[in-house]
Amino acid sequence: AQSVSQHNHHVILSEAASLELGCNYSYGGTVNLFWYVQYPGQHLQLLLKYFSGDPLVKGIKGFEAEFIKSKFSFNLRKPSVQWSDTAEYFCAVGYQGGKLIFGQGTELSVKP
Amino acid sequence: DVKVTQSSRYLVKRTGEKVFLECVQDMDHENMFWYRQDPGLGLRLIYFSYDVKMKEKGDIPEGYSVSREKKERFSLILESASTNQTSMYLCASSFTRGSNQPQHFGDGTRLSIL
Q1: Candidate from A34, A99, A103 with C-beta closest to B48
Q2: Residue B99 pLDDT > 80, yes or no?
Q3: Do A43 and B48 touch (CB under 8 A)?
Q4: Handedness of CA A103, B39, A39, B14 (dihedral sign)
Q5: CA B82 to chain CA mean position, Å
Q6: Can you tell me the distance from the alpha carbon of B94 to that of B90, in angstroms, rounded to the nearest whole number?
Q7: B9/B111 Cα distance (integer angstroms)
């Protein structure tokens, strides 16, 4: 069965630190990959997505992610985090029928 | 912008009650989904629907049912609520069945079963 794994459950950073959140998936076919963010008290919203082409994709709010097929990974990065990036981040894989499989989520706390 | 509206942000019910959670989307999307979100477990799919009157089980359908009488509305029903159904429930919609379709989420309903 397909699965998505996010290894970091809770990450604490100071403002201006660099961020990398890990995401690994198990799926043998063509993958469509997503990162979602959930700010406190708000709905999940799409940060970025990868379908094909350039494996380095850029999303909103300065986030980017790199698809490495050989490692089955889709890690999320940001060069310099802000306090407002405090949120929970979810990696997801799209598969048949438009369903998404989500990872467990990573809670990011940014200290001012 | 897609708007997915869930009828309640917070709901408190008693064990054994029949509970209805309502969700409406305003973008004529074909697909609608119900998830529950629990700490450390991410989002788990309960049920989904591709069209009116169609429904399919997700990963954790036990204890739940759904109804889709109109394209824009998707209801989740807890037939006889139990304390282990205390959770955050999220509704989502997407345009078509393609695996590259992002889903759009509502604000969630935090349900407590006493």
Answers
A1: A99
A2: no
A3: no
A4: positive
A5: 17
A6: 14
A7: 8
